[in-house]
Amino acid sequence: MTATEHQAILAISLLAAFADGQKHARERDEIKRIADGLGQADGVRLPTLYQDVLLKRVRLDTAVPQLASADARLLAYEMAVCICDADGAQSPAEQAFLGDLGQRLGLAEGVASGFAQQAEALAQAPIPAAAPVAALAAAAPAAAPAQAPGTVATAVDQAALDKSILDAAILNGALELLPENLSTLAIIPLQMKLVYRIGQAHGYQLDSGHVKDFLATAGVGLTSQYLEQAGRKLLGGLLGKVGGGLLGGLGRQAVSSGMSFAATYALGHVAKRYYAGGRVLSAQMLKDAYAGTLQQAQGLQAQYLPAMREQARTIDTGKLLAMVRGR
């Protein structure tokens, strides 16, 4: 795939990120940060591209013709679908954007709709209404009265909770090493379910809206997180490759990113602190706590890289939805 095609795919991805016109200012800031962070690679100038998209100097009718190969056209569509699904639901504007994109790319209807359905099912995998907490909280005496939300923190098995956070971080780090778009999309619902389980272990019954707000307040944008992970894969030459491309790209990809391990680890430990403390942290305190813990987590990446690589080799990407629903 050429540098021109890489640039066109990233342009279409940015267009998808802003397709609904309703991104919160903090999400737009995160997308700009990602563009600046990825900078210039393989001839792609992402900071400039970001400005061109915002100022409408880049549009679908200029980006799509730059995709010469069928693989590049399909990859552009898949990335756009995942970006529109990253926050769990497509708006009417995003649906219209994807419909227009699919027609311009000339994709077979079955191919486009089949991938879109898989992505939507994955992104909207429900948070369970009452997941078991026995593995995370010590059993209370049978005669003990029901406790109010937030008061079970003293019964939480901290070692088990820490293990669940580390296991989730390693799994998401492994998913980041895989070349498929859907594996990257699976990271977000798994992070949401981790936060949900931590809140529940401390006596809080959460819904997806609360969990999304928690992630956003901490500084983890859903659209921007997917864009960063997939952008690094694309520029690292891994995204879209299969078979031998996976084993050959594990080391290169691990060096270039590893953000999913660190982000999941940091989210888990900040959520643990937040819910154990009765949800009293301010928005700024939550954001600062996440930033500090993220830096610590990045220092652990090399230690757990062998575990991520091993898990990446055993994940059946055909069962991603079942895996997300079961976690």
Please describe what this structure looks like.
The protein has two domains: 3-123; 153-326, no CATH class. α8 (158-177) packs across α15. Residues 129-148 and 242-252 have low confidence and may be disordered. By secondary structure, the chain is mainly α. The protein has a two-stranded antiparallel ribbon. It is 68% helix and 1% strand. β1 and β2 form a beta hairpin. It has helices at residues 3-17, 25-38, 46-54, 60-63, 70-85, 92-105, 109-123, 158-177, 181-201, 208-218, 222-235, 244-256, 259-276, 283-298, 301-314, 320-326, and strands at 40-41, 44-45. The chain is built from 16 helices and two strands.
How is this fold's topology laid out?
Elements: H1 3-17, H2 25-38, E1 40-41, E2 44-45, H3 46-54, H4 60-63, H5 70-85, H6 92-105, H7 109-123, H8 158-177, H9 181-201, H10 208-218, H11 222-235, H12 244-256, H13 259-276, H14 283-298, H15 301-314, H16 320-326
Antiparallel strand pairs: 1-2
Helix pairs in contact: 1-3, 1-5, 1-11, 2-3, 2-11, 5-6, 5-7, 5-11, 7-9, 8-9, 8-13, 8-15, 9-10, 9-11, 9-13, 13-14
Gyration radius, in Å: 20 Å
What is the assembly state of the chains in this entry?
single chain
Could you spell the SSE succession in H and E letters? Answer: HHEEHHHHHHHHHHHHHH
Report how far the terminal alpha carbons are from each other: 35 Å
Strand order of the largest sheet: 1-2
